[in-house]
Design a protein that fits this description.
The complex is a heterotrimer of chains A (about 400), B (about 290) and C (about 300). Chain A is an alpha+beta fold and about 400 residues long. Chain A contains eleven helices and 20 strands. Chain A has two domains: about 5-120 and about 200-270, 3-Layer(aba) Sandwich (Rossmann fold), CATH 3.40.50.300; about 280-400, Beta Barrel (OB fold (Dihydrolipoamide Acetyltransferase, E2P)). Helices cover about 25% and strands about 30% of the residues of chain A. Chain C contains twelve helices and two strands. Chain C has helices at about 25-60, 80-85, 90-120, 125-140, 140-155, 160-165, 175-200, 205-215, 220-245, 250-255, 265-270, 275-305, and strands at about 65, 70-75. The two termini of chain C are about 55 Å apart. The chains are: A alpha+beta (about 400), B mainly alpha (about 290), C mainly alpha (about 300). Chains A and C meet through helix 3, strand 1, strand 2, strand 4 and strand 10 of A and helix 1 of C.
Chain lengths: ~400, ~290, ~300
C-alpha cells in the first residue's frame, strides 16, 4: 500500500464522516474567540485546564496540572516533555478521557470533550505498558476497537490487514502478545490504535521499555508512520533527545505548568527559562549585568552581545550551549564578528566523539564554562592549564526569563 | 542445631551462591527437616489409604486387601444421603458466593468510595474468625430469624439445607473475594483503560477484557469455596436440621464414637474428592501464571 | 496563530476555579463511586445480615438470662455470664487453650521456619513442586486428616505398638494433650509455612551477601539480616496458627479426652448439651476478643515493617 492509498482511506474514514458539523463548529469558535476565520481549528485545545488529585486525609489536594493553555495543531507531531511528575502524563490522560479535568476547557477539533468518557472521544492511545489484551491474538487485539464500533466484518478484516502491513507485522496475526518481542508488541499497540483512524493519536512514553538501539529505530519508524498517515500525534516523553528527534513542536512542562512551546530548534537554541535550558541538553548558565538593550557584561568583564530586554544595571542569566563555543589559543587574532572570553583550562574530559574543556576566566568572581569541541580531524587539542580564548557567535546566547 | 560458622573450614569457591546457601552441614539439617515434614504431612494420609482396603473389622489388624468397606459404603443409605446433602449445599453456596465474592472484589479493588475500609474489614472477618464462634453466631441468628418470621408472617422455617447453604455462603464470599482480589490486583489497570479507549462501553470492557482476565481467579475462588463447603463441620453441625446432615457432619458423629473400617473408606472417598479439587485448582493457577 | 502558550481567551465556558471548590470532574467521579458501591452492595448486605447482625446477636445473648429449663430469656440483662468466665474451671480451660495454642504455634514455627527457608532457597522449579506438595494436604479435608491421627495414635495403631516397650501396656497416646498438639500442628502447619515462604522467597538474598561481605559469619548474617526481614512472615504465620488453634473444636474432640477440653469444645457443649446459651455466647465473645487482640498485633507489626 502506498502513501496515497492510505491517506485516502484515512480521509474517508468513518470518524471523518461521523462529524459533519466540523465546519460550522470552526466558524462558531472562530467568531467567538476572534481568531481569523481561516485559521485552522486546532486538533486539541486546552484552556485553563487544571487537574487536582485529592491529597489524602488532612492533606491539600495535589495540583498535577495547573491552568494549562495549549493548542496542538492538526497533523503535527507534538511532544509533551518534562521530568516525571511534571503533569505531562496527566495532561495526556485528560485528553484520552482517563481523567477528567477539575477546571478548564478541553476541545478536540472544536468539540468540548472534557467530561466525555474515553469511548466517546475520537482519540486513541498507545500505552506505556502497551496494554495489549493478553488473551487475544494480535489480529483480535487490533480488531477490538473496530468491533466495538460494530463495523461490518469485511471492513474490519480489510482495515486490520492494512494496518498490519503499515506496521510490518505480516505473519504475526495469530500470535499472542506474550509470544512477541518488545518491539513487535509496540507495533501491535500502535496498530491497534491507528486502525481506528483516530483524529488524534496519544502516545504515553511508548518507547520507554525498549533498549537503546531498538528505541532509536522505532523513533524513525514512528515518525515515518506519522508522516504517512498524517494524524496528529501527541507524544509524552521524559527523553529530551527523543522529543528533539521526532517532534514538529515540543511543550516543556514542569510542576504542572507549561514552560515553553516551540519547535525543537527554538526549544534547544532559545530556551526561555533556566529549567528548559537545563533540562534539555547541556548548557552553560552565566550571570551577567545588563549594560544596555544589546549588551551585557559577565563578572570577568567580558562584554556579550545579546538582546537583553531588561533595564541597564539589572542582572540576567545567559544560557549558551557548550558546542556553540569555539576554543582558540589565547593569542589568536580578534574577530569582530565573534564575542570572546579569555581564560584557563582547568579540566579536560574525553567523551569519545567530543572533548569537554572546563574553562575559568577572571579571578575575584570567576566565570566558569564548558566548551565542547568535536573530536574531528584537524581540531587542535588543548591541555590542562593552557590559556585559551573562547569565542562564539552573538546569536548563540539566550537570555533566560528567571 | 548448629548454624555457627566454622570459619576454619574450607569453603568451596565455585558456587556464586555459596554465601547465601547455608553450609553443607546446615544444608543437610534443613533437607532432613524438610523430608521429616513431608513424611509428617503424608504418612497419616497414606496409612488411611492402605487401611481402607483392609478386610478386617478391627482397623489395626491387617488381614487381607479387599473392597469390602467400599461396598458397605455405597450401600449405606445414611452415607449416601449425607453425600447428596453435601453436594447440594456445596453447589448452591459455591455459585452464590462466587458471584457475590467476585462483585465484592471488583467493587473494592477497582473503585473508590467512602466506607470502603469498613467494608474491607467486614469482608476479612469471616476468614479469620474461629469456626466455633461463627457457628454460634449462625445458630443464634437463625433462631431469632425463625422467631421473627413465625411471629410476623406466621411462616414456620426450620434448620436444614437452606440454613446450611446460607451459612456457607456467609464465609465463602470472603474467601472468594480474597482470591479474586489477588487476581485483580495483578491486572494492569491500563488494560481496562485500553478497552474504553477502543470504544468499549463499560459492560463491553468488563465482558470482553476484565472478566476473561480474572476468570482464573474466579475459578480458583469457586474451587476454594467448593472445597471449604465440602469440608465444613462445625458451623454445619450447628445449623443442620434432622435429616439434613452433610457428609463431614455424619462422619464426625461416627468418629467421635470410635474408629471403624467404614469410616476409613468414607475418609478415603472424601480425601480423593478434595485432592482432585486441589489438583484442579493447581492446574488453574498454572494456567493463571502463563496468561 | 503563532503564540500557542497563551492562545486568545475565548468566551467558551471556562468556569473560574477556586482551589477549594469542587472541580468539574466531581459529578463524574461521584457517579463512578456510586457505581462501585452498587456493585459491592449485594455482598455487603449479605455480610451485614448474615455476619455482622449475628455477631451483634451473640453479644446481646451474652447479657441474657438462662431459665431453669435451659431457655434463654431475652430480658433481665446482666453480666453473670461474664462473671462465670472467671470460675476456676473455666479459667483452667481458657488457660489450657491458650497454652496448647501457644505450644502449637511455637512448634509450628520451629519446624516451619527451616522448612520454608529450605523451600525458598531451592531452584524455582523444585520450589514449585515442593510447594504443591505442601498445598495438597493443606487443602484436603481437615476432619479426615485429624481422624487419621486417631487411627495412628489409637490402641492398635503403629505408634503405641512400637512404643509399647517404653510406654508399657497401659501406655496411651490418644486423648492426651500430646495428641491434641500433634493434631493441631498437623492441621495448621501449612498456615505457618506459606506466609513464611512468601516472605523468605521475596527476600533479597544479596542483603545476606552484603552482610557476609561486611565480615558477618553465617550465623550473624542470619540473625541480623534474614530473621528481622522475615519477621512479617513469622508474625503472620504465628497468628494464622494461633487463632484457629485457640478456638479449635474438631481436633480436641477427636484426639483429646476429658482432661484436654479446650474452649471451643466447651462453647459447643453450652449449646448442644448444657443448653446455657448466654454463657456460651459470653465464651464466644471472649474467643473473639482474643482473636481481635491477635489480629491487632498482626496489623500493627505489618504496618510498622512496611
Amino acid at each position: 500500500m502506498d502513501d496515497h492509498q492510505l491517506a485516502g482511506t484515512l480521509d474517508a474514514g468513518p470518524l471523518a464522516a461521523k462529524t459533519p458539523v466540523l465546519d460550522t463548529v470552526t466558524t462558531e469558535v472562530a467568531a467567538v474567540s476572534g481568531i481569523e476565520v481561516d485559521a485552522p481549528l486546532p486538533a486539541v485545545r486546552l484552556q485553563g485546564v487544571t487537574k487536582r488529585f485529592p491529597g489524602g486525609r488532612n492533606h491539600d489536594p495535589v495540583v498535577a496540572v495547573d491552568d494549562l493553555d495549549l493548542d496542538i495543531r492538526d497533523g503535527e507531531f507534538f511532544s509533551l516533555l518534562g521530568p516525571s511528575g511534571c503533569g505531562k502524563t496527566t495532561t495526556l490522560r485528560m485528553i484520552a478521557g482517563f481523567e477528567y479535568p477539575s477546571a478548564g476547557s478541553l476541545q478536540i477539533f472544536g468539540q468540548e470533550v472534557g467530561l466525555e468518557p474515553p469511548n466517546k472521544r475520537p482519540v486513541n492511545t498507545v500505552f506505556q505498558s502497551y496494554a495489549l489484551f493478553p488473551h487475544m491474538t494480535v489480529a483480535k487485539n487490533i480488531a477490538f476497537g473496530l468491533e466495538m464500533q460494530q463495523l461490518p466484518v469485511d471492513e474490519i478484516d480489510r482495515r486490520v490487514a492494512e494496518v498490519i502491513e503499515l506496521v510490518q507485522l505480516q505473519g504475526r496475526e495469530g500470535r499472542r502478545p506474550k509470544q512477541l518481542s518488545g518491539g513487535q508488541q509496540q507495533r501491535v499497540a500502535l496498530a491497534r490504535a491507528l486502525v481506528n483512524h483516530p483524529k488524534v493519536l496519544l502516545l504515553d512514553e511508548p518507547l520507554g521499555a525498549l533498549d537503546l538501539k531498538l528505541r532509536q529505530a522505532m523513533q524513525l519508524e514512528l515518525k515515518r508512520i506519522q508522516e504517512q498517515v498524517g494524524i496528529t500525534f501527541v507524544y509524552v516523553t521524559h527523553d529530551q533527545e527523543e522529543a528533539l528527534t521526532m517532534s514538529d513542536r515540543i511543550a516543556v512542562m514542569d510542576g504542572g505548568r507549561l514552560l515553553q512551546v516551540g519547535d525543537p530548534e527554538e526549544i534547544y537554541d532559545r530556551p526561555r527559562t533556566r529549567f528548559v535550558a537545563d533540562f534539555i541538553g547541556d548548557t552553560n548558565l552565566l550571570i551577567a549585568e545588563v549594560l544596555d538593550a544589546d549588551t551585557a557584561r559577565l563578572y570577568d568583564g567580558t562584554v556579550v552581545r545579546v538582546p537583553t530586554g531588561a533595564p541597564a544595571g539589572s542582572t540576567v542569566t545567559l544560557a549558551v550551549r557548550p558546542e556553540k563555543l569555539g576554543l582558540w589559543h589565547a593569542d589568536a587574532e580578534r574577530d569582530l564578528r565573534l564575542d570572546a572570553l579569555t581564560g584557563t583550562i582547568r579540566r579536560v574530559t574525553f567523551l569519545g566523539n567530543a572533548i569537554n574543556y572546563e574553562v575559568v576566566a577572571g579571578e575575584r568572581a570567576p566565570v566558569e564554562l564548558v566548551v565542547r569541541q568535536g573530536n574531528t580531524p584537524g581540531i587542535e587539542h588543548f591541555a590542562d592549564g593552557e590559556r585559551v580564548r573562547v569565542r562564539w557567535l552573538p546569536g548563540s546566547v539566550a537570555v533566560l526569563e528567571d | 542445631m548448629s548454624l555457627t560458622d566454622t570459619s576454619g573450614a574450607s569453603r568451596p569457591l565455585v558456587a556464586d551462591d555459596s554465601v547465601i546457601r547455608p553450609k553443607r552441614g546446615v544444608e543437610r539439617l534443613l533437607a532432613g527437616n524438610a523430608w521429616l515434614v513431608f513424611a509428617f504431612l503424608y504418612l497419616p494420609i497414606l496409612l488411611l489409604f492402605v487401611l481402607s482396603f483392609n478386610d478386617n473389622r478391627v482397623v489395626g489388624v491387617w488381614t487381607e486387601p479387599s473392597l469390602r468397606w467400599y461396598r458397605a459404603m455405597i450401600t449405606d443409605s445414611a452415607v449416601l444421603g449425607a453425600l447428596r446433602n453435601s453436594i447440594v449445599v456445596a453447589f448452591i453456596s459455591t455459585v452464590v458466593s462466587t458471584i457475590l465474592g467476585t462483585a465484592a472484589g471488583l467493587s473494592l479493588e477497582r473503585f473508590r468510595y467512602r466506607g470502603q475500609r469498613t467494608y474491607d474489614g467486614l469482608l476479612y472477618l469471616p476468614v479469620i474468625i474461629p469456626d466455633v464462634t461463627m457457628a454460634v453466631m449462625m445458630l443464634l441468628f437463625f433462631v431469632q430469624a425463625f422467631d421473627l418470621l413465625g411471629a410476623m408472617l406466621g411462616v414456620s422455617a426450620t434448620f436444614g439445607i437452606g440454613t446450611i447453604s446460607l451459612s456457607h455462603i456467609a464465609f465463602n464470599i470472603s474467601f472468594v473475594a480474597v482470591v479474586v482480589r489477588a487476581r485483580i490486583v495483578g491486572l494492569d489497570p491500563s488494560l481496562e483503560e485500553a478497552a474504553a479507549d477502543l470504544y468499549a462501553s463499560r459492560w463491553q470492557a468488563f465482558r470482553r477484557v476484565t472478566l476473561p482476565l480474572i476468570a482464573p481467579g474466579v475459578a480458583g475462588g469457586a474451587l476454594l469455596a467448593l472445597t471449604l463447603s465440602l469440608d465444613e463441620v462445625v458451623i454445619t453441625s450447628f445449623v443442620a436440621g434432622p435429616g439434613s446432615t452433610t457428609l463431614p457432619v455424619y462422619v464426625f458423629g461416627l468418629v467421635r464414637r470410635g474408629v471403624t473400617p467404614l469410616i476409613n473408606a468414607v475418609s478415603v472417598l472424601m480425601l480423593v474428592g478434595s485432592m482432585l479439587l486441589v489438583l484442579a485448582s493447581l492446574l488453574l493457577s498454572r494456567q493463571r501464571n502463563t496468561t | 496563530m503563532a503564540a500557542t502558550v497563551d492562545p486568545p481567551r475565548t468566551q467558551t465556558p471556562t468556569p473560574a476555579s477556586a482551589p477549594d471548590e469542587p472541580g468539574l470532574e466531581r459529578a463524574a467521579e461521584q457517579a463512578e463511586s456510586r457505581r462501585g458501591f452498587l456493585i459491592g452492595l449485594p455482598s455487603l448486605l449479605y455480610l451485614v445480615v448474615l455476619f455482622a447482625l449475628p455477631l451483634v446477636i451473640v453479644v446481646v445473648y451474652s447479657f441474657a438470662t438462662r431459665s431453669r429449663t435451659g431457655r434463654t430469656i431475652l430480658a433481665d440483662w446482666n453480666l453473670s455470664s461474664y462473671a462465670r468466665l472467671f470460675d476456676p474451671l473455666v479459667l483452667e480451660i481458657g488457660l489450657r487453650s491458650l497454652w496448647l495454642a501457644l505450644l502449637t504455634t511455637v512448634i509450628s514455627l520451629v519446624v516451619g521456619y527451616p522448612f520454608a527457608y529450605y523451600l525458598a532457597t531451592r531452584s524455582p522449579r523444585v520450589r514449585g513442586v515442593l510447594l504443591v506438595l505442601v498445598m495438597i494436604p493443606f487443602w484436603s479435608n481437615f476432619l479426615i486428616r485429624t481422624y487419621a491421627w486417631r487411627v495412628i495414635l489409637g490402641r492398635d495403631g503403629p505408634f503405641v505398638r512400637f512404643l509399647e516397650p517404653i510406654l508399657g501396656t497401659e501406655g496411651q497416646l490418644l486423648f492426651t494433650p500430646f495428641a491434641v498438639v500433634v493434631g493441631l500442628v498437623y492441621g495448621y502447619l501449612p498456615f505457618m509455612i506459606l506466609p513464611l515462604y512468601a516472605t523468605l522467597e521475596r527476600l533479597d538474598f544479596s542483603l545476606v551477601e552484603a552482610a557476609r561481605d561486611l565480615h558477618a559469619t553465617g550465623w550473624q548474617a542470619f540473625w541480623r539480616v534474614t530473621w528481622p526481614l522475615s519477621r512479617p512472615g513469622v508474625v503472620a504465620g504465628s497468628i494464622l496458627v494461633f487463632i484457629p488453634s485457640f478456638g479449635a473444636y474438631v481436633t480436641p474432640e477427636i484426639l483429646g479426652g476429658g482432661r484436654t477440653t479446650m474452649i471451643g469444645s466447651y462453647v459447643v457443649r453450652q449449646f448442644l448439651s448444657a443448653r446455657d446459651w448466654p454463657f456460651g455466647s459470653a465464651l464466644s465473645v471472649a474467643i473473639l476478643a482474643v482473636m481481635l487482640v491477635a489480629a491487632v498485633v498482626y496489623f500493627r507489626t505489618r504496618d510498622r515493617e512496611a
